[in-house]
Amino acid sequence: MFTVRSTVKTITAHVKPTQQLRYKRDKAGLNPQLERIVNQLSVMSAARKQPRLLKLCDEDYIKHRTVMKAWSLYRKNKIEHNESLLEKQYQSMNEAAAELQSINPKLYEIANEHQFGKRFPLEIRTPTDFPPRQIWFYDYFPKVDGSKQQ
Amino acid sequence: MASTPVSRGIWSNFANRSKSLSVKNPSLQNAILSPNLPKGPSTLKASVNKLKYNSPIGLDKIYPLAYDLLEKRSESIYNEVSKIEEKIKSVKDQSELSKLNKEKENLLIKSEQENPEVVFNSIFQTKSLDRSQPVYRHYLKEQWKSYKRMLTMQRLETLAIIPDTLPTLEPEVDVNLKFPHNNVNTWIEPGKILSSNVTSKPPAFEIIEFKESKDDLYTILIVNPDTPDVQNNTFSTTLHWALKDIKLSNNDSMVDIKKLDENKDSILIDYLPPVPEKNLGNQRFAVWVFRQDGKLNDSITKDSIKRTKFNIREFVAANKLAPIGAHVWRSVYDLNTDNVRKLYGLPAGRIFSRGKL
User: Fold this and answer.
1) Same structural domain for residues A25 and A70?
2) Which of B330, B320, B328, B311 is nearest to B219 (CA)?
3) Which of B69, B93, B204, B272 has a CB 3.0–4.6 Å from the CB of B256, allowing a cystine?
4) Which residues of B touch A (CB under 8 A)?
5) Nearest to A59 by CA among B12, B48, B124, B10
6) Higher-confidence position of B148 and A134
7) How far is A91 from chain B (nearest CA, A)?
8) Which segments does the entry list as coiled coil (chain B) (predicted)?
9) Has residue A150 been placed in a domain?
10) Domain count of the fold of chain A
11) Nearest to B33 by CA among B76, B75, B4, B55
């Protein structure tokens, strides 16, 4: 359950009270400054706590719409471009495989042979668009076969 | 840092484009075509609001870029349109031609759909749109589909106009209806119960087409399926008004007294005002709009059609009419009904009682 009290407590856990109180454990509750903020917030209605609705005049609303449309169009074009690249890549892979089949069927068969027992290595890095910040783990040791962790 | 001005490309060129694709008010147009608001927010009325208004931060920087991107796209679409226009000149096959025309219209919509001036007009100036432009028709259709079409269909179905008069309707046009009982321009909401004073004079229609139409011919019928037929212990349909061969275009969509006065042949049957009987409850008055595929047969005259026990299904089938829109209102006996009867020289009304006659 999130209450105003609990949220304020977690947010301001690091804030120390400006006024030191004797004989009072600070774990017991909020300090008086925070207590005041909580009281003020609890008196305010939920609508007042919402961020204000952006009020645009008609001209600016049209401009805003135009910008949003252009942005969505830009992103759509980018995605379509990437997809077409992937499509081309796949096509050329297919063509290469077909060519190999026509040149040397035996090599094609070997290339497409099912490799039993060969699993996808779980330790492989997830393929990403860009290289990682740390290129190589020099201290890496592969897991030993038959170890408890496997 | 000053922001770059908005480009003046194809959307500012009116050599081949209609002038109606721009904003009429010069100060508003200037505001839309500038990165910021040079004369402040002119659509805000109160000077207090004008003074305290601030445009969103950064909008003036990004807006010219967005405008440029959309305008360039529009330019490429216009190039495609000109290619299709060349093709249309050479093609003679009718089906191929209609396909190309459809394609051209879609491209014309796409090219202007994001033009800020067009968007401004179609959001804030809906009453004075040039409906000969495909893009405005598109926006109007979207608006109609989002509410009015659903409302009309709901009223037609719950009041059982469908299937009591015609089996079904696939609405294609927006039918608006008003009565000239006062000088206030009030369009009637479908299904409203109107007083006999309001309906004592013939209504005016506005029929808004969303496809391109030039001098298309229309038929309008008003029928009442709730006329009591005491002999057979049932109800029959009465024809209250019939108009035929009404010529309408995209920008000439009103059917009012002025138009009917100019071509009197279009009135097939004169207007009979609703005069519901006492104690008979609400009576439905269905307005049906049909598109004709040519002039109506000359054999259909005032004398060949009977007002009472009118079979609307037979009439529609015989004349090859395509129902494209409908409207409905309801009338009930009130204190003024007898006056309306006197005005039109109608016989005195009957008073129905609870028991069977």
Assistant:
1) no
2) B320
3) B204
4) 28, 31-32, 37, 41-44, 53, 55-56, 59, 62-63, 65-67, 69-70, 73, 114, 116, 119-120, 123-124
5) B124
6) B148
7) 29
8) 67-94
9) no
10) 2
11) B4
pLDDT in tens, A129-146: 888 888 888 887 777 776
ipTM of the complex: 0.86
* In a shared domain, residues A35 and A83: no
- Exposure of B256 by Cβ count < 10 A (0-12 exposed, 13-18 middle, 19+ buried)? middle
pLDDT band at residue A15 using 50, 70 and 90 as cut-offs: low
B51: closest CA of chain A, how far (Å) = 12
Mean pLDDT for A24-53 is: 81
Chain B residue nearest residue A60, CA to CA: B55
Separation between Cα atoms, residue B260 and residue B267, nearest integer Å: 7
**CB–CB of A54 and B73 under 8 A?**
no
The confidence score (pLDDT) of residue A123 equals 77
Q: How far apart are CA B166 and CA B160, in angstroms?
A: 10
Residue A129 counted as domain residue: no
Domain that holds residue A18: 1-50
B212-226 pLDDT, tens digit each: 999 999 999 999 999
